[in-house]
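Quick entry between incubations.
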Amino acid sequence: MTLVARLLEWLLAPLLFLWLATAIITFASLHAVLDQAADRRVLDAAAHVQELWQRSNQSATHVRPLLYSLGGGGGRRYEIGIYDRNGLELVATSPGQIELSTTALHGTMQTLIVGDEASRCGISKRAADGATAHTVVACDASSERTSQSVAAFRHILIPQSLILLIATGLVWYGLRYILRPLSQLQSDLDARDMNHLTPVNVSVAPRELEPLLTSVNNLISRLTSGFESQRRFIANAAHQLRTPLAAIHTRIELAHRMLQNGEVKSAQEVLGAQAQLSVRTTKLANQLLSLARSETAGLSGQEKPLVITQALANVLARSAARAQTVSVELIYEEVGSTEHWRIAGDQTLIEEAISNVVENAIAHAPAHTEVRCIADATAREIRIVDAGSGVADADAESMFHPFVRGADNQRAGTGLGLAIVREIMRRHGGEARFASRDMSGGACLILSFPMFMA
Amino acid sequence: MRVLIVEDDNELRGTLGQALQLSGYEVDAVADGAMADSALRVKDHYALVVLDLGLPRQEGLSVLRALRDRRDATPVLILTAMDAVESKVQALDAGADDYLVKPFSIVELEARLRVLLRRKFKQSDNTLSCGALQLDIASRVVTGQSGERLEFTSRDVALLELLLRHSPNWVAKQTLTDQLSSWDAEISANAVEVAVHRLRKRLLPNGVEIVTVRGLGYMLQEAAP
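Done. Structure below.
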């Protein structure tokens, strides 16, 4: 819903209500005032006729012209009748039209039936020659009165509606005026492409918008640094993929050359080794994907609690066979009450992290040594200790950067494993690091987990 | 010609070495910067160096700078995945003679290596000659007096190339031993002597003589008619 619509909705309903209320009140008061004036006129007319009736000694011939002129000729305004004390009609503008009520008092208004419709009638009673009292009744049609009121009301209503329309127009225009900085902002943002991530200029916007824009700018700067690191990563990944590609290319050229020299057997050998190369390139691609996935995988915050030792046990079960083929013994140890040690996290990701570390340790451990996997519930960490050549303290931190490989690493590593581990651990509020080197020499990698907030 | 390949990718290192060996180079290959640095400590041990930039233990650039700091002018070709202009400029300014971005073609790499050798020995083209004897470096074909093709073993062609490159100057026997050996296939001074002896006999009919300078080495020159 737009701001304009919201404001108009909020403003127009009361405006309309007010307009209606004023209209009703105006109509009612107008009607009352006009009614009073009309009543007075009717009473005056009745009194006037009474006067003439008495003065002319109740002569119908004298009174008739007056009745006729008051009755208004063609477009008659009043019905007037003169009655004796028994209510017998003596003279009338329209004979037999008025149903007189004999209880009517002098000088009052009464509603009588004239013809077929109810009309307001003024009563004038005066005693003539002693005992005989004559009643003069003057009536005007109620419908006439109402139509008068309506006509007057219409004269007021038209300007009032115009004022309402003008007010609405002003509100509309005012809103557009107020919102103009927003549409400027909008066109500024619309004109941007995905690489144009400079902050929005806060100083030109109205002060009320500043907090919002500051938040937007903060978001933009977070996005920028995210994009930047992603860009760096992609550039790095492209470089890393170039080397195996170069190897494949070189190998094919070499085989081609050997075939030209007629050395079919050597060419076959060269091409045969191509398969291993493909396996390695595939592994690199897979790890790149896995890193990208762990970087983008949003934890919903509603992960089910998982038992760390269970995840570790799963990983060890999967790695046991590989350890055996290189004559490395996997040893599982527990410290503290591990059965209650849970965290909220993604089981697959956590196992992937642990698995990377364990596989790393197995690969670096010399034959006939142990890799110890210690689940320490007290310190809330998993320690994977091998008896390999270890990592120098100076190199320890850089080992977690993508594409950095250990010095002695002559194996087919991609240099991504530990970067993935760290990414996953940080996603879960934990950390991955090497313990500083001690006398024993081998590497000890620590995965520390956060407290479980249930 | 003895080449040092410094490349941390096992596959690429192996294949590249194999390809260069096939083209008549003697190849030593190492996987990290520190090993490259110690291999390059012996001055003029290698005719050429193919150097990767991103290396474990010691960066390629630092190996290169250390080499140039020792006033060693051995031609260095940088072979890397980094294609940014800045890294090219940085490497060339640090003393690299050429820069090739992965993935590359072996043919191009070899052509560039030939350029580096031509420059090193101050030659203008790929044909080395002494009298009527000619050696095409690219195709490794030797032609004799009447333009006929002479068949030699690749070891003999390599020996002939070394003598021709240095001609009309003499070549130390130690240089020949160094350049014709690799870590995988060391040859002795005796083996060099035998090879020279064999080559001398084959060249004489073509009007070219290998002169022995006692205590110094060998020299190729036109035989007196």
